[in-house]
Write a structure and sequence with these properties.
seven-stranded mixed β-sheet, metal-binding, alpha+beta, two-stranded antiparallel ribbon, ligase, about 40% helix, BirA Bifunctional Protein, domain 2, 2 domains, about 350 residues
Length: about 350
């Protein structure tokens, strides 16, 4: 049995020395030291030895096990070290190479425009309000003097979810909700930016989803001249101090009287060009005095309170201000287009 143990030790050490991989080393350990390994099989026969030989053979067996175990550990450390060195060589980084430039993003052009408009109106005492994009028929239409069957509803071409729920076609419902919250006995001065939706065919000047900013001021003795003054400040701050405005009569169900506002064409300075269709003016927004019916439905007494409202499209304002000729550019996420306006 001593000869068997020594032969196992010699064979195991040679196998360990010749091993080149961790898997191979693990297989050697199982072959010689495992439950069914060579050393274990020999030790099972110790019971047949004379009693006086068992301690001697046992001592030899322990020494053989320790020798093989130490050899396995040493070889394992060596293979791990070699594997690490190989990995470091193959994954080496040349720290002298120039770094790769990191692409820095920035706010979307429409975000910039909306924030610029918000800052302007906040400076004039307006607060910013928001509301749900999924709106009820009542707040989107009826509370704004557009009862069921009103022909002006056709202008909105609405996305209906149910008979009573829809994707809002304008941000005016935020105005109605805000006025209701004041119980008809307090002034309201607010703007409400947000996304709106209409069933429209997308082309260079139309989109089924776009942005709007609407404003509202309700108080005692609010006049049309107040609206004109506010809009004149807006036009000059957004398009330049030399811009002029004009108000033209128009119609909106929720305002009476209603107006469209034009600004003088920046390209031709009012002389007439293809941009302004030879008129010298460009339509920019609509507004007017809040209709008495809208005030009453919101809980305000139109004999005491009056107000004005206006609505504008940041998309159109951005197109005019920066010379963008296709509204779809704002929504196609073309980085070549968007990066031009990171610092706009």
């Amino acid at each position: 049995m001593k000869d068997q143990l020594e032969a196992i030790q010699k064979e195991a050490l040679e196998s360990i020395d010749n091993s080149q991989e961790m898997k191979e080393l693990q297989a050697i350990k199982v072959t010689y030291l495992g439950k069914k390994g060579s050393l274990t099989s020999v030790l099972r026969g110790m019971g047949k030895l004379p009693a006086e030989e068992r301690p001697v053979v046992g001592e030899i067996a322990n020494r053989v096990r320790e020798t093989i175990t130490d050899a396995l550990d040493e070889k394992n450390d060596k293979l791990e070290s070699e594997a690490l060195e190989k990995q470091l060589e193959t994954e080496a980084i040349d720290v002298t190479l120039p770094g790769r430039p990191v692409q820095v993003g920035g706010p979307h052009l429409l975000t910039n425009i909306i924030e610029e408009i918000e800052d302007l109106f906040i400076g004039m005492g307006f607060e910013v309000r928001e509301g749900p994009e999924v709106e009820t028929d009542y707040f989107n239409f009826e509370a704004l003097n557009l009862p069921e069957g009103h022909p002006a509803r056709d202008m909105h071409d609405t996305f209906y979810i149910t008979n009573d729920l829809l994707l809002r076609t304008h941000t005016s419902p935020v105005q109605a909700r805000t006025m209701l919250g004041y119980d008809g006995d307090s002034s309201v001065k607010m703007i409400c930016p947000g996304k709106v939706y209409r069933r429209d065919t997308d082309d260079a000047t139309h989109s089924h989803q776009f942005t709007q900013i609407e404003g509202l001021y309700v108080d005692k003795n609010v006049r049309m001249s107040d609206l004109k003054g506010i809009l004149d400040v807006f036009a000059k701050k957004m398009f330049g101090e030399d811009r002029e405005i004009r108000l033209r009569p128009s119609f909106f169900p929720f305002t009476e009287p209603s107006v469209e506002m034009d600004i003088s064409c920046k390209v031709c300075e009012g002389a007439g060009c293809s941009i302004c269709k030879k008129t010298g003016w460009i339509e920019i927004l609509g507004g007017g005095m809040v209709h008495p019916n809208v005030l009453e439905m919101a809980g305000y007494d139109p004999e005491i309170y009056s107000g004005f409202a206006f609505g504008m499209g940041p998309d159109r304002i951005a197109m005019l201000k920066y010379g963008v000729d296709d509204i779809r550019q704002f929504y196609t996420n073309d980085k070549r287009f968007l990066k031009q306006y990171h610092n706009a």
